[in-house]
Amino acid sequence: MTALLYEKRDGIAYITLNRPHVHNAIDPEMMVRLAEAWRDFEADDSLRVAIVTGAGDRAFSAGADLGRLIPLFTGARQPEDEWDHRLMAERDLVNVALMRRRPIYKPIVAAINGFCLAGGTEMALATDIRIAAEHATLGLSEVQRALVPGGGSMVRLPRQVPYCKAMEILLVGDPIPAQEAYRFGLVNYVVPLSELMPTAERFARRIAENGPLAVRKIKEAVLRTSGVPLEEAYRIEDEISREVFASEDAKEGPRAFMEKRPPQYKGR
Length: 268
Known about the structure:
alpha/beta, four-stranded mixed sheet, 12 helices, 268 residues
């Protein structure tokens, strides 16, 4: 069984963490395949948005496989197969897989279908719109195993939710029910499991209808200006605005509106 499923349909990339027998825990194979999928998604101009989820109805991902991935990184286990060897030879694959130090400017929707803990939450924090099933739980449990959430969460989480709540999640490590995560803004919506993928797809399709260059550049502006002094942030915003307003899509959008027809965006 392949540890990750990657499909393309109607401009949407579907990325499914596919180890349901272990709550979609991330092993070396999944990490490598995830990096490969994100690279392809970023490079394929026909893809405008991605949906990431977990196989089955119990887990998005319970995080790193504590028997396979973490021992490999700590040296408690030596490389045994092609996935182990490749991950150890190309350590930057972890950054690519978790979108750390290598941001993807195309939007990503997370469909959180159950346990979303440790590395699962780290991955969710790198997405843009998060839909959670009613039974989902999120959290960063690394500290309870004498580890740290070094996949981006110590940086991302305090920028996304109130400081005191971020510190509670990081320092205590307990799981958080989906409804509580919704209350302080960690997820956008909480829905019944039967509505999870339809809701995620509705957002993805709606985003895919918009000008693809404008969509990418909006996300780029948000990520590049995070934590930057105000004047520098405005400089970046001006740079991005000039690029978008000079595009063919920027001419097509208003023209299609005035002609009362669907726009034909090209992403340039």
